[in-house]
């Protein structure tokens, strides 16, 4: 009898006490109703929740041996924890799914269908969102700009929601990158992928953990990982401004020589020029600082996460 393929659904959590059990029940229902020909694992990876999320996950793991959990010793951020979950997911493929129901659970069979047709990666691409319209617009603009200046074909409005084949997961596990941006790696590593459009739903319960700081952090991680323009633009702009400064200086010199008594140069041009050049320098020092910060994080080579506890992974040892 041919062994069934195993699909893992990986669900990162952080303070999702109102969503943890409903998302488990929704995924279980879809897997057993629409994909009975597959074995499945539902794997939570919790980023040190401070509410009842861990208590609920432990209870689910006790009730259902299809469910596994990795509990981190602290919050390692919105990128490290899901990436770590992907690299430790068992089975033939892994589906990354948010716990808040913004990622529609009923798209799982669609992903699996595309995977069986040969796609190594199936990416869900947002075409609309019921969340904050301003944030959706700004994020869309950012991705368009990033795509134009990036060295790889960055996927617009892609949050990481999708299916990843075992071959891709093995590559992720081998990279040893302490600051991964796997949304970019999906585009960079060149595996065959299929795009599936979807409208993003409103969060079912609780509040979003994203704020301006986390969004800025995500933007800078992608910017410093996949663009060179932040380092090259200062040199280009510096050259252009030096030519412009020379032209203005020559203009003032000629005017002063021709109208010596009638052309007071004054201090305004000097002050304006000093503040302008100073602000440009400060801006690009900050940009270069972001690149240096990214390099520093990679050189430290800290682990992606540190586990506090694993639950039900002994099932994997028994199977092997």
**Series of H and E elements:** EHEHEHEHEHEHHEHHHEH
Poorly predicted regions are none
Query: How many DSSP E strands?
Result: 8
First CA to last CA: what distance?
Answer: 17 Å
Overview of this structure, please?
This protein has helices at residues 20-34, 53-63, 80-87, 108-116, 133-149, 166-174, 182-188, 212-226, 229-258, 268-300, 314-319; strands spanning 6-13, 39-46, 67-72, 93-96, 121-129, 158-165, 193-200, 307-311. With 320 residues, it is an alpha/beta fold.
Which helices and strands appear, and what pairs or packs with what?
Elements: E1 6-13, H1 20-34, E2 39-46, H2 53-63, E3 67-72, H3 80-87, E4 93-96, H4 108-116, E5 121-129, H5 133-149, E6 158-165, H6 166-174, H7 182-188, E7 193-200, H8 212-226, H9 229-258, H10 268-300, E8 307-311, H11 314-319
Parallel strand pairs: 1-2, 1-4, 2-3, 5-7
Antiparallel strand pairs: 3-8, 4-6, 5-6
Helix pairs in contact: 3-6
Task: Please supply descriptive tags for the structure shown above.
eight-stranded mixed β-sheet; 18% strand; elongated; 11 helices; 320 residues; 50% helix; single chain; alpha/beta
